[in-house]
Every structure is written in C-alpha cells, then in structure tokens.
Amino acid sequence: MTGLDWKPENLGVDGRVLSVVTAPAGVLSAVGAEVDPTDPEIVQLAADLVATMRVSPGCVGLAAPQIGVGAQVFSVDVTQHPKTATTHGTFVLCNAKVVEASRWRPGREGCMSVPDLTGDVKRAGRVVVEAVLPGTGEPVTVITDAFEARALQHEIDHCAGKLFLDRVAGAHAIYQRRVYL
Amino acid sequence: MDELAITVIGPDRTGIVADVAEALSGVGANLSDSTMTRLRGHFAMTLICSGPTGEAVRKALAPITDVLSTVRTVRPESDGAAGGEPYLVSVHGADRLGIVAAVTRVVAAAGGNITDLTTRLTGPLYVLIAEVDLPPAVAADLGVRLAAAADELGVDVTLRRAESEIL
Q1: What is the value of pTM for the model shown?
Q2: CB of B85 less than 8 A from some CB of A
Q3: Which domains can be identified in chain B, with CATH numbers?
Q4: Which value does ipTM take for this structure?
Q5: CB 3.0–4.6 Å: which of A173, B46, B83, B161 could bond A169 by disulfide?
Q6: Helix/strand/coil for B45
Q7: In the CATH scheme, what architecture does the domain A8-176 have?
Q8: So what's the pLDDT on residue A3?
Q9: Which of A109, A176, A177 sits opposite B167 (nearest CB)?
C-alpha cells in the first residue's frame, strides 16, 4: 500500500510554525480530545503540525499536544528515514486508533518533547490504524510496518497523554542523550 | 551551588529506599540524578542532591542504622559535557579475574567514555554491559581491539551502535 492519496496542500490553509512544548507540561500528560476533522480549527491545526514538523530537523512526526493543543491529531512523515519500509508520505490523522498490532520489537527512541533522554520501548513492527482525515473527515485504514509503525504508535500515545517514558522497558532503560540531530 | 554526592548501601529490605529518601527530603535535599539497584542482596544507592549541608544529611541518615552511607560535596557538572557517539559493549563468558579491568582499559585507550556499566555473575556466567560514548570514527578499530582482548580472556564481546530514533 502506498500513499493515502492525500497531501497537506489539500487542507487549503497555510500552516504556522509553532514552538514545541517540552516536558514537564500538563498538555503532554492529558488525554487529547476527539476532534471534528471538518472543523476549520482542526484543519488549521493539521496544517500547523505539518509546518512545524517540516522546519524541525529530523522530525518524523508531531502530535497536537506537542504544540500545546490537547487534541487527537498528529502528522507523520518518515519518507526520509533509513529504517522506513512502508511509507504513506506526509499525512495527518485525527482520532487515530491502533486496531491491530504485531511483531513487537524493542527499540531506543527519543522525543522532541523530552529532548535530553532516550529510552528502550517495545513497539509493534506492524500495525493497522483506523482514523479520519482532516478536512474531509474521510475514514482511512493505514496498514504499515517498521519505522512508520513505530512513529504512528509514538504519536497516538501523545494523543492519549502518554510519553515514551510511560513505556520504557525498565528502571535502567533511560539514557541521557548527548548527540543531537 | 555545590551539590552533594551521597552513597548508601545496606542489606536489601522493604522500605530501604523510602527510609533514605524520606530522611533526605526531611532536610530539604533535592534529589536530581540517582541510580539505585540491588547487588547480590545488598541495596546500593548513589545519588546527587542539592540543598542542605553535608553535615545535615549525615545527621539525617544516622538513624538508619542498617546502612553505610557517605556524603561529600561536589562541584556541579559543567555545561556541555563531552559528547560522543553512543555505543553498547556486551561481554559474556566464564568468570575470571580481570574481565572488567581489561575491557574498560581497551575502551579508555580508544578515548571511549563509559557512561553506564552493569556486571552480573550468575553461576559460572559473567556478564558485562556498558554504555560508551566514543569519539568519531574509532568504533571499527575499537571493535578489533575488544575482540583481541576478549580472545585473551576467553569471553565473547560485541560492540554495537546504540541507535535511537527521535520521533
């Protein structure tokens, strides 16, 4: 499966580059609200997520709580990442849920909202995600694997008020991050 | 402001961490980084904290009679601590004298800075896992030297990049 037949330009609004919220911050720990994907504010939010993601070096995904909005909306673009297998290009999903997950694998991950730490987190290497697209509200099913699957789970966690710190494999599984992109 | 480096070790028991942490918070000691783990039935805590004087902390810990503690004043870490490329070293094999000494000497000779290290002895099996920050472009050569050292020790070693994905 390639592409969702969706482009950020479909949103019809210019995204604003916003600053990224870092922990500790209440918005990162709160469960995001389900959204109406056709609401103009949500369409703007979707555009803002893409714009902010694009100017952040190495950023492969950004969730609404990371720009201070407690909503279930996130953007993903893993097309340039070496660990990507399947990719659906640049996209924004609303109200996304993981409905199937398999091939669980450990991996070390970090987050723009927790800039100084990384942690070992088990994620599914294959997922099926159901969501709706911003703007049209069209329901979509995203079946993906490898790095895009990890990114989706990380962003869906953000929308549920969870950080990778809530999923680290053990007391000795967080690390000081000294190498920045 | 100066910080306090504190070590506490004692026979493991339920509540040992709570007792120590409560004593520290009772004198206004703010815990920053710490590592606490059980080592063959002893519980060992190494902590950095700030706030009170060393003397106040010594007094606060004194009533906990089943632990041995030390308190000393240290200078805070300077900003921009040395970076490097993160790698993991795993060593395992039959226990013998000098595994840690030999392996860490090889790492140090390559300019590698160990940031975390754990060893476990279970039955005849000895295991060492270390997190190492390496200067650029030394990993391949270090891998060869570690293999040679491991060969001499009769243990197995792997050096691999601790890859992390920023999402």
Answers
A1: 0.85
A2: yes
A3: 3-74 (3.30.70.260), 85-161 (3.30.70.260)
A4: 0.75
A5: A173
A6: strand
A7: Alpha-Beta Complex (3.90)
A8: 56
A9: A109
